[in-house]
Amino acid sequence: MWINMIFKKKFRNLSLMHKLLLSYTLLTIIPVALLGFFIYTAYTKAAEEQIGALVPQMLEQASQQIDRNVQDVTNMPERLYQSQQMIEILRQDSFQLHAEAMQQQYTMERYLSSSFLHSSSSDLLGVFVFSKNRVFAATAKNYSGFSKGEAAVYGQSLELEKGSMILLPQDTNLVFENNADYLLIGVPLQDRENQEYLGTMFLALDVSFVDRITGTFKEHNAARIMLLEKESGRIAYDSKKEKSDQVVPDDRYPIENGSFLQDGKLVGITPAIQQEYALIYEIPTEKLFAKQQQTRTISIVLFLLFIIFSLCLYTFVAYNVSQPIKRLIDNMRSVQGGKFQQTLPVTKQDEVGRLTESYNHMIVEIRDLIQKNYMIRLKQQEAELYALQTQINPHFIFNTLETINYAVEAGEQEEVINIITTLGRMLRYSLDNGVKFVSLKEEIRHVEDFLSIQQFRFYDRLTWKTAYPEISTDVQVPKFILQPIVENSIKYGLETKTSIHIDIKIHQTPDMLILTIKDDGPGFDPTVKTKLEEELSLEPGITSKSAHYGLSNVANRIKMLYGNNYGVSLENNQKGATVRLYLPFRHVSERGSLDAEFTNHDRRG
């Protein structure tokens, strides 16, 4: 239960695209893969069962054919009884004249060759007749071994058993040319008139006939056919041509008839040659099911191609569904941060498209609401600015009066007069609260007055310089946009350093006026700078009551008056900080005349 709850919680926290892809994987890819696996497994199992049942049937047919072939060879001695001359030769004693003995051997071997080798089975390698210490032989290949004594031993055994026997090459010393494998079938010869033992016929049957019989179901070269003697475990025939004297362990083939899987092989067994031998069929399963494995490989490749194609297609669809929602979320976060400029293009008419339309409508309404409340907010800003001036001026005037007091005590009358004159000009400029815009000349004059008084107070600790082109001085700028910046530079610079220098430069482009205030103080702390830049990027009318309220106030006033294309930028230089004000290039009204000439002032204590 708790695992299910954890899975649901994690699933809920996933993004929409990941949810779609995970759902597709769980509902499509995994079920299809499992279905394909179960189908292939069931198909393979059914094929194994079918082949496992079919192999014994094929082996049974092959075994019957082998039995017939062996039985046909076993019945071949009957042909000898068809020739009364051959029976008479076998009845005669071995003690004869040499010429007569040679004639009888020639006659017998010629008959054996014509009746057994040339007019019957081509699988016979040779025919041997042992009778009364005589050997008659007709072979298709040269041979060696198989002495009279050895033949006599087997003959006596057959005489006693009154039946046939099958010998393997390792049971005798008979060796044919090229070491051909054979089954040596021994059959006793009886005189049917007087029931006396005439001798023994041995027929060497080439076991390659097994290859011919089983070749119909040897689908692969990897298949192995063996004829195994059950009692001794000796291999009579091996299609792999391994050593003929190899002995198979008793536990290798646990059943006598049927099929089973063993060591990665399919093994089929059936009795052969009157139950004394076992016909064994072995084939590796990987070879037997090669076609199935090829089908499996093709199926896997096609399945992977299908998965890749469908996954790409589904990813494309999921991306097209989730990406507009993601952009909508990102824009909503921007709105949450106070940015209302950007709307989203509506490219679809589905639910996401209608949601985007609603979002755009909401943004437009918010911007309209901000615009409608613009004047109210502007008045609030002016009231805040006035309150700020009221808050700053008493402290500034107190410090200035203290400076005048020190100058009077020091008897510096001229300096006292300059300070009082400058202070009076500043007070007139500050008390004229009905004026929102002034010329650049008046604003610079006010800042120079402010810096002059501060220089009277700090002496060599403060130096400053202003530089501006003549053409820039007849443009309009908002009142009190330079003094808060300069005041911050003096305040934070002299807190950590013994002296500070301030540069004020004016630069203009065809449609923009850039005011740069640069100092060699400590610069902006990176954390403070980041926070300030976030505040400066807010929509007009949204301000923060931070320690740099004067800087934020100036930036907010510029954006409220001129729009978001203008404002304030901050920068840390190699020695101190740089603040730039971006204003539109606008000339003053006709309300008053301005001085035509301005010069660069370089004031040092």
From TrEMBL:
The chain crosses the membrane at residues 21-43, 298-319. The keyword Ion transport does not apply. It comes from the Bacteria. InterPro entries: Bact_2-comp_sensor_kinase (IPR050640), HAMP_dom (IPR003660), HATPase_C_sf (IPR036890), HATPase_dom (IPR003594), Sig_transdc_His_kin_internal (IPR010559). The keyword Transit peptide does not apply. Keywords: ATP-binding, Cell membrane, Kinase, Membrane, Nucleotide-binding, Phosphoprotein, Transferase, Transmembrane, Transmembrane helix, Two-component regulatory system. It is found in: Cell membrane. Residues 319-371 form the HAMP domain. PROSITE patterns: HAMP. It is a multi-pass membrane protein. Its main location: membrane. This is HAMP domain-containing protein. It comes from Terribacillus saccharophilus.
